[in-house]
Specification:
CATH class of the largest domain in chain A: Alpha Beta
CATH topology of the largest domain in chain A: Rossmann fold
Largest sheet of chain B: none
Helix content of chain B: over 70%
Largest sheet of chain A: 6 strands, mixed
Number of strands of chain A: 10
Radius of gyration of chain A: 17 Å
Number of helices of chain A: 6
Strand content of chain B: under 5%
Order of helices and strands of chain B: HHHHHHHHHHHHHHHHHHHHH
Organism (chain A): Zooshikella harenae
Protein name (chain A): ATP-binding cassette domain-containing protein
Shape of chain A: globular
Number of domains of chain A: 2
Distance between the termini of chain B: 35 Å
InterPro entries (chain A): AAA+_ATPase, ABC_SmlMolc_Importer, ABC_transporter-like_ATP-bd, ABC_transporter-like_CS, P-loop_NTPase
GO molecular function, one term (chain A): ATP binding
Oligomer: heterodimer
CATH superfamily of the largest domain in chain A: P-loop containing nucleotide triphosphate hydrolases
Keywords (chain A): ATP-binding, Cell inner membrane, Cell membrane, Membrane, Nucleotide-binding, Translocase, Transport
Shape of chain B: globular
Number of helices of chain B: 21
């Protein structure tokens, strides 16, 4: 279970205080108006933003003191997930090895993932030659290869056209099931994730989170 | 008529620059070929001079750029208190008068300097060591500034990814920083090599004897001591050929300059996770001390030499000469830049564009001493009346400042034309009205900056004055050089501080009168 306990962040003049819990293996959609602090929460969980107080737990273990790379978390940004002067394979491999050299085990995992995401042919390409959808799939491959139990997605497919976005969301859902991941997904279109979300966190002013369970969700369906 | 007004200033300006450059080079070549047999490449003296020129430039480039990479990483990887001040100091270092820096460095590292005093050693600064220290003092800040601006241009998203993937220390360098500054490092190395290869004043003042003589100093000696014009011509031609080869390589490899983006707060927070090493603090400390010590030494020396203040009518004359030459050459440089930029706006062809840019920056690559040699030889026929020294120095200083003024003004100028060009055309505002209401108010800040920079550069220049000036010709840097030559270190320090004060006053004057009100920031 992911537990966010009184996580407080000061940004500009705003103070945001988050508290919520999410069961393991669930896919939770984060909703709320723009600028209310959805991305801020994800960045704080990842460790990219410093927090003033509060605690983070995963399966009962506190991790808010760890540096980003050592947290049980991996994050996919809205855009710019790739380092553009390195090829696709290096971009993915850096997720698990700073020297970009993979063990046999890791190579096998990589192969499975790239086949699943249909990007095996792109491994030698430069990110600059890829389409938006391909880039996000490459970035997703890196997240999956890192095998962190928590996957944070910050409007990962919002730059794609509706059909492609729907496909990518379905794929994410399947991968979540296959790898047993716990997912936090920021979205501006709650209806688009209605079929895959187990629950919703609706964030409002000051970081207040309303948790809506899947029963509400299914009732809505 | 309107066409004539449109094109003539630009054509005249570009023509003047080309005429000046080619006239100087022509004279050099003409004299070099009167005595081609004089060029004996297996002459051991010439070989030694050539070898030393290349050796000192190579080592200077190695230490300057190598040090700059470390220093730039130490600055760019962390946000720390006084960062802005450190960057400003680096900019100041680059614009300081050469002779003043030489004095400061003699005071710190010289035989009876602070370092020897502290360590109880007898290290001599004259020769290769002193030349290297001086060259590194000027070029390390230059290279550091360029590298920091490129490191800061690395997207925030890369740092966010690096944080997630735990790319620290070496690996961050390997995957992020090195691939992105590699071309800059190569280009900068060549540029610094070229600047040091063309450096004259430093070698003249600190090169001890025949063992540490460069081609530039050999040209000067042939010209002013032996009055051997063919020999000077041949040496100048050799210098020119080598400089052009390096310049071509450098322009090929050095990509266009980028603007400095302020480091974001977001980045700083991420960087905190990435590096928290005492190593970088140490490197920053060393860099700061290296840049600051000579400056402190000058102030301290001037304070202690206050009793030896060499105030005299000749100092007044030198001050006046320096200020006037500076004013004329800075005005000339700015006028040339404006005329060339105006021309460029109306001749929107790729080739013209490139050609104008190359003309403007030519003086950065051509050795000023070679040009001045050519002019000196060329004006001999006019009995070298007094005013020729003035004219030649003003011309040379304006050409040396042109690369900087042109680039400083260019982007604001372009912005003005792109942004307001159509509006002004629709309002029917042309020529003077266009310049008065649009161009001058919008380029006012960079214009003031260029004027001030060109003035300061000219105030500090000594090489051309030494070469073409008559024996009794006097400027502030020349006064310092002569005092240094007669071991009156305290008096030299006092004049050096006076020169710095003049630089500050000129800068302040230009800034307060021209740069204060700005239409757009």
């Amino acid at each position: 279970m992911l537990a966010v306990e009184g996580l407080t962040i000061k940004r500009n003049q705003q103070v945001m205080c988050y508290s919520a819990q999410l069961k393991s293996g669930q896919l939770c959609a984060l909703t709320g108006a723009s600028g209310v602090g959805k991305s801020t929460l994800l960045e704080a969980i990842t460790g990219l933003l410093p927090v003033t107080s509060g605690q983070l737990f995963w399966q009962g273990e506190r991790f808010d003191q760890c540096v980003p790379g050592q947290r049980p978390v991996t994050m996919l940004f809205q855009q710019q997930n790739l380092i553009e002067h390195l090829d696709v394979l290096t971009n993915i491999a850096l997720g698990v090895s700073p020297s970009a050299k993979l063990t046999v085990q890791q190579q096998q995992t990589l192969q499975q993932i790239t086949e699943r995401l249909a990007i095996t042919e792109l491994l030698a390409c430069s990110p600059l030659s890829l389409s938006g959808g391909q880039r996000q799939r490459v970035a997703l491959a890196r997240c999956l290869l890192r095998q962190k139990p928590l996957l944070l997605l910050d409007e990962p497919f919002s730059a794609l056209d509706p059909n492609l976005r729907h496909e990518c969301l379905q794929l994410t859902h399947e991968l979540q099931q296959q790898f047993g991941l716990t997912v936090l997904l920021v979205t501006h279109f709650p209806e688009e994730v209605a079929s895959i979300a187990d629950c919703y966190w609706h964030i409002s002013e000051g970081g207040h989170i309303d948790v809506m369970s899947q029963t509400v969700n299914q009732a809505a369906k | 008529m309107s066409r004539l007004l449109k094109y003539s200033p630009g054509v005249v300006a570009t023509g003047c620059v080309w005429l000046g450059l080619s006239w100087g080079l022509f004279n050099v070549i003409k004299y070099a070929f009167t005595d081609v047999d004089g060029l004996i490449l297996d002459d051991p003296w010439l070989q030694q001079v050539l070898l030393f020129s290349i050796k000192q430039a190579g080592l200077s480039a190695l230490f300057s750029v190598g040090g700059a990479v470390l220093f730039a990483l130490a600055i760019a990887r962390r946000v720390f208190w006084g960062r802005q001040w450190l960057m400003a100091l680096l900019q100041v270092c680059f614009a300081l008068p050469v002779i003043v820096v030489i004095l400061g460095i003699v005071q710190v590292y010289g035989r009876s300097g602070w370092l020897n005093h502290l360590l109880g050693t007898e290290f001599s600064i004259y020769g290769l060591a002193g030349i290297l220290i001086c060259h590194v003092f000027f070029n390390l800040p230059l290279a550091t500034r360029v590298l920091v601006s490129h490191l800061e241009a690395i997207p925030d998203s890369y740092y966010a990814q690096a944080a997630q993937m735990q790319l620290n220390g070496w690996w961050r360098w390997r995957w992020l920083e090195w691939p992105l500054i590699r071309t800059q490092v190569v280009g900068l190395s060549l540029l610094v090599f070229l600047l040091c290869f063309n450096s004259f004043t430093i070698v003249l003042a600190l090169g001890g004897g025949p063992k540490s003589t460069t081609l530039e100093v050999a040209i000067y000696q042939a010209l002013r001591y032996e009055f051997d014009l063919p020999q000077a011509g041949i040496l100048a031609l050799l210098q020119l050929a080598l400089a052009i080869i390096i310049a071509v390589l450098a322009t090929r490899l050095m990509p266009a300059s980028t603007t400095t983006a302020p480091i974001s707060v977001h980045r700083s927070q991420q960087a905190l996770w990435l590096s928290a090493s005492k190593l970088w603090v140490t490197i920053r400390g060393f860099g700061l001390i290296f840049c600051l010590l000579p400056l402190l030494a000058i102030v301290w020396g001037a304070w202690s030499g206050l009793s030896a203040w060499p105030w005299s009518s000749s100092l007044g004359e030198a001050t006046l000469n320096s200020l006037l030459i500076g004013l004329c050459s800075s005005l000339l440089a700015c006028l040339l830049s404006l005329a060339m930029l105006h021309f460029r706006q109306h001749m929107r062809y790729r080739c013209v564009d490139r050609w104008l840019e190359q003309t403007a920056v030519a003086a950065l690559y051509l050795p000023p001493v070679v040009l001045a040699t050519g002019w000196f030889i060329g004006t001999l026929a006019w009995h070298r009346a007094d005013y020729w020294s003035y004219i030649l120095i003003v011309m040379a200083n304006a050409l040396m400042a042109l690369p900087f003024t042109f680039r400083l003004i260019a982007s604001a100028f372009q912005h003005c034309y792109d942004y307001y060009g159509p509006l002004a055309q629709s309002l029917g505002l042309r020529r003077w009205a266009w310049w008065r209401w649009f161009v001058l108010p919008m380029t006012n800040k960079p214009l003031a900056q260029s004027l001030a920079l060109a003035w300061i550069l000219s105030l500090g220049d000594m090489g051309v004055a030494v070469l073409v000036g008559a024996a009794d010709f006097n400027t502030l840097p020349l006064t310092i050089y002569r005092l240094l030559g007669s071991y009156q270190l305290a008096s030299a320090m006092a004049v050096a501080v006076w020169l710095l004060v003049c630089c500050g006053l000129c800068y302040g004057l230009v800034y307060l009168t021209l740069g204060r009100k700005s239409a757009s920031s």
